[in-house]
Amino acid sequence: MKRDFVAVTDFSEAEIRETLKLAIDIKKKPHHLDVLAGKTVACIFHKPSLRTRVSFEVGIQQLGGHSLYITKDEFDLGVRETIHDAAKVLSRYIQMLMIRTFSHQSVVELAHYADFPVINGLTDLSHPCQIMADIQTIIEHKGKIDGMKIAYLGDGNNIANSWLEAAARLPFDLRIGTSKETPPDQKILDEAIKAGKSKILVTDDPAKAVVNADVIYTDVWASMGQKHLAEQKARLLADFQVNAKLLHKADADVIVMHCLPANRGQEITDEVIDGPHSVVFDQAENRLHAQKAIMIKLARESF
Ligand code: CP
Ligand code: NVA
């Protein structure tokens, strides 16, 4: 049966752990795994990308596969033809697909009709590949994810939502510091709380979120497709900037994370992102390893 990775919760706890272990192993010993030999992986971007585009294309190549960049002219999720019809056509040509787009529901629908595995490379709702790479980074720096105090500060966006989905599967202490007007997705939050795996706090007090934190994480305040809200978000989130003063409230060995691209001087200061606690480029590197592990798992179970 073909598998998808549209949300972190598409994998069980055991599958997430197994995939992260594989990602860490691949990074240490980049052995040749030709699981994608003779296969074509389509890559679709309806929003800009540096990390996701390059890490997927390089990863596909390293796994022996061929990546095929498809533009919006060919595949537009339901405008030129229905998602159903496009999915059925693509199923006759390709063996896997990675998509970055706006509507999460469209990706769910695509995965439903496609005979091939579908990977979410970011939607307005979530960014699961990013969070897998981030957890890998935390394990590498802190030795574990279990029990870690993770403070996410800023907009309640796709990154915050994927952290909540991770918290529904793995046991850690997630604090989301955001304004009352910029909360994460209510349904995802409710499901994460209901899962009962992690300790979850959503607070509008940044100090409460970061107290004794092992990890401080932030992201841009206005995501792709929301740039018209930039001024409003900047006003609402001004108190949630990750700066040196805030870092003092966290654990002395805190690591600072940002999925990038960063809006330096807004959600994070130069001295923090360039400082000794920052692991942002390890995170970026781990996109490659984590996504290779995800593709290997999907290929092994689907082909
Ligand atoms: N972090 C991330 O997904 O970066 P890109 O938008 O450059 O792909
Ligand atoms: N929240 C950001 C993440 C970018 C990787 C966005 O959606 O633009």
Task: Briefly say what this structure is.
With 303 residues, this protein is an alpha/beta fold.
How are the elements arranged and paired?
Elements lengths: L12 H16 L11 E6 L5 H12 L3 E5 L12 H8 L5 E5 L3 H10 L4 E3 L7 H15 L6 E5 L4 H10 L5 E5 L8 H10 L3 E5 L2 H5 L4 E4 L11 H8 L6 H4 L7 E4 L11 H4 L6 H23 L1
Parallel strand pairs: 1-2, 1-3, 3-4, 5-6, 5-8, 6-7, 8-9
Helix pairs in contact: 1-5, 1-12, 2-12, 3-4, 5-6, 5-12, 6-7
Bound molecules: phosphoric acid mono(formamide)ester (CP) and norvaline (NVA).
Overview of the structural elements:
This protein has two domains: 8-127 and 287-302, Aspartate/ornithine carbamoyltransferase (Rossmann fold, 3-Layer(aba) Sandwich), CATH 3.40.50; 130-283, Rossmann fold, CATH 3.40.50.1370. It starts with 12 loop residues before the first helix and ends with a helix. The model has no long low-confidence stretch (mean pLDDT 97). A five-stranded parallel β-sheet has the order 7-6-5-8-9. Strands 2-1-3-4 form a four-stranded parallel β-sheet, with helices on both faces. Helix 4 links the parallel strand 3 and strand 4 (118-120). The longest helix is centred in the last third of the chain and has 23 residues, at 280-302. It has helices at 13-28, 51-62, 83-90, 104-113, 128-142, 158-167, 186-195, 206-210, 230-237, 244-247, 270-273, 280-302, and strands at 40-45, 66-70, 96-100, 118-120, 149-153, 173-177, 199-203, 215-218, 255-258. It has 303 residues and is an alpha/beta fold. Helix 1 (13-28) packs across helix 5 (128-142) and helix 3 (83-90) packs across helix 4 (104-113). The chain is built from twelve helices and nine strands. It binds phosphoric acid mono(formamide)ester and norvaline. Residues 122, 127, 157-159, 219-220, 223-224, 259 line the site of norvaline.
